[in-house]
Write a structure and sequence with these properties.
Elements: H1 5-29, H2 34-60, H3 72-79, H4 84-106, H5 109-112, H6 115-141, H7 170-174
C-alpha cells in the first residue's frame, strides 16, 4: 500500500530537519564569533524541539522515524559555503523556503483535515518563522545582504559626471531664445514684435 501524501511530506520534512542539525553543527565547529555561535546554537535547539512532535505524529501514523538517511545534496550545498556571509545566506534561504512550505501546506486540505496535524503545522511554521526573523536580524547586524543581487550603495564610489563647457541644450536655440552672451542665434530669426497701437 503506497504511503499517504501526509506521511511522505512529513517524513521529508523530518529528514530536512535532521540534515540541517548536521549543517548547523558543522558551521558551529568552524565559527568563533559570539553572535554567530549563539545563533547556531539557537537554531540547533529549535530544530530539536521541532523534531520531537513531528516524530511523534509520524509514529502515530505507523511511519518509521528512526535511522532516516540525511539529504546528501543538502549537505554538499552547505559544505560549499566557505565564509560566514555565504553560510548565513545559505541558512537564511533554507529558513525562507521552510516558512513558505508551511504556508503551502496550510492551504492543502489533505494536510489540514486532521486538527492535530493542523496544529502541528502551525506550531512548526511559527518556529521556523521565528528563526527566519533571527537570521534576518543577525545578518542586518553584520551588514550582510540577504540576497546576492543587493548592493551596498553606501560603500560604492559615486561617479561624478564630467563637465562639458561646450555643451548647451538644443532647446535653447530651437525656440529662438537669446544665447548665453545675450545674442540671438543666427539659425533662428528674431521674433517680430507686434505693433503697439496708440490710444485714440
Amino acid at each position: 500500500m503506497p504511503e499517504s501524501i501526509v506521511v511522505v511530506r512529513l517524513t521529508r520534512n523530518l529528514r530536512y530537519k535532521l540534515t540541517y542539525i548536521k549543517v548547523f553543527e558543522a558551521y558551529l565547529d568552524s565559527t568563533r564569533e559570539p553572535e554567530i555561535v549563539a545563533f547556531l546554537r539557537a537554531l540547533i535547539e529549535a530544530q530539536q524541539a521541532a523534531i520531537a512532535p513531528l516524530s511523534r505524529y509520524l509514529r502515530h501514523l505507523d511511519a518509521p522515524t528512526q535511522d532516516l538517511e540525511l539529504d546528501d545534496k543538502l549537505l554538499a550545498h552547505a559544505a560549499d559555503r566557505d565564509n560566514t556571509q555565504n553560510k548565513l545566506r545559505f541558512i537564511y534561504d533554507g529558513l525562507r523556503r521552510a516558512v513558505a512550505w508551511y504556508k503551502t501546506q496550510l492551504m492543502d486540505r489533505q494536510m489540514t483535515r486532521d486538527p492535530e496535524l493542523l496544529a502541528l503545522l502551525i506550531e512548526l511554521g511559527e518556529l521556523d518563522a521565528a528563526k527566519l526573523w533571527y537570521a534576518e536580524a543577525i545578518m542586518g547586524m553584520l551588514r550582510i545582504p540577504t540576497k546576492l543581487r543587493e548592493k551596498d550603495f553606501e560603500n560604492q564610489e559615486r561617479v561624478q559626471p564630467q563637465a562639458d563647457v561646450e555643451w548647451q541644450p538644443r532647446l535653447v536655440e530651437d525656440v529662438g531664445r537669446p544665447m548665453w552672451q545675450g545674442k540671438w542665434s543666427a539659425n533662428v530669426p528674431r521674433p517680430k514684435r507686434a505693433p503697439i497701437e496708440e490710444p485714440e
